[in-house]
Amino acid sequence: MTLHAHVMTGLPAVPENQDAEYERWFLAQVQAAIDDPSPDLAHEQVMDEVLAAIAEVCERKARAVSA
Fewer CB atoms inside 10 A, N or C side of the chain? Predict the structure, then answer.
């Protein structure tokens, strides 16, 4: 199963067209991130949350295998 970033992040899918369209899409995503009024998150906080999510998935998989 392939996970695409737009599915995991809620961002729109990358256009499948030419490089110029991709460039416009990419720059729009960057500008949207710059303009986002949400508070910044510290790298350590983000990493703690990501590692906790990964650990949770690993634990669920381990329970499923041992069941």
Answer: N
Structure tokens at 17: 């067209």
The predicted model scores a pTM of: 0.47
Per-residue pLDDT, 66: 87
- Alpha-carbon span 15 to 64, nearest angstrom: 37
The letter for the amino acid at 36 is D
14 contacts: CB under 8 Å, gap ≥ 6: 6, 22, 25
Q: Give the start-to-end residue ranges of the domains of the chain.
A: 5-66
Q: Tell me: the pLDDT tens digits for 35-67?
A: 999 998 999 999 999 999 999 999 999 999 987
CA distance linking residue 6 with residue 23, whole number of Å: 16
In the DSSP assignment, the letter for residue 3 is P
